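Question:
Write out your own:
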Amino acid sequence: MSALPKPLLQAVTPTSSDRSGKVLAYVADAATETALRQVAAPMLLTDFEIRRGDVRTAARDLARQRSPDLLIVDLSGNDLPIGAMESLSQVCEPSVTVVAIGDRNDVALYRNLRALGVAEYLFKPLPTDQVEAMFGRAMGAAASGQATGRQGKLIAVTGARGGVGTTTVAVNLSSYLADVGRRRIALVDLDLHTGTVALHLNLKPGRGLREAIESPDRVDGLFLERAMQPASDRLDVLAAEEPIVPAIHQDSKAVMDLLELLRSQYHYVILDVPHGLVGASREVLDQAALRIVVADGSLAGARDALRLRSTFEAAGVSRPTLVLHNRSGAPGALKPAEFDRALGAAADCVMENRPKPLIEAATLGEPAIRRCTPFKNEIAKLAQAVSGQSASGAPGLFARMFKR
């Protein structure tokens, strides 16, 4: 068995004022706990906690709470350490730095963990100098506010036309990824005047979104903590309901700066983008990692979906666009084959027309996926297309979410 090379320790970065410099360790034995405490004590860390457990304990706990800046997990005795780290990745926030410790001096394991994006692997007994270096670099980064470079995924949902069900798709996709996929989701309604995301989730719109756009210098982690409204334990919403007049100018840079901060704290930032390629909406659609264009089954819907997709392609923005054929089978709508011909290609996703359960859910202010199983199954397919994996998780997620 090959010995491990000298560790290349990476820094940790705070992304929210309440988590600045937070260190959380899960260790399986008293000796390792003692080693960590002996190094941490002289450093006077203000937010340092050790819990008895292993990587599975960490995954269970972090499914219910915020992630720290630096997470230390114990892989000792785990026969499938890579799979265990994959499971952990599904609940950790993008900005967390992960250090693994274990009882195997194995260069193959070290390389596999590094390839997955783990910052470092230390084997027991823990060398004091390596632990000191790890804590020193982590706290130095926390003080300086360096960026980790890891960000969540920006998903823009927009309509080919108005009134085609864009908000319903955005709300239920967000709810599915949060409730079933157990990802941490931010849902942002960029229609500050007539948006209905908050109504769909029985939330009262606040002023946080407007303030973030008009006073971008005020936006930080603490601001977001107060502005975001929880719709569930893994889904937070940012929405407004401003007067119809005067229209609020959305500065593109202010909007993108806000979204970048959200991306540092959430696995997915899902945007309900108003119809029309104007102002900040165009910038958001250009910068999104994935665009979902929602179209109903009308001829005009297929036409405008094609025009919108062609516009993105002509702009040379090399980011994927999914076309969602919504309300398929509605009275007077094109048949799926006819819609595809008008679109010039097969729609990426198809959702049947189910007005009754969807209207009932919207009226009650709850996601329709909780009331209509067939619709939930369709949203599940969309979620898989968005994440590139099933809700249960598939190999490769850790690398996408944690690798620098």
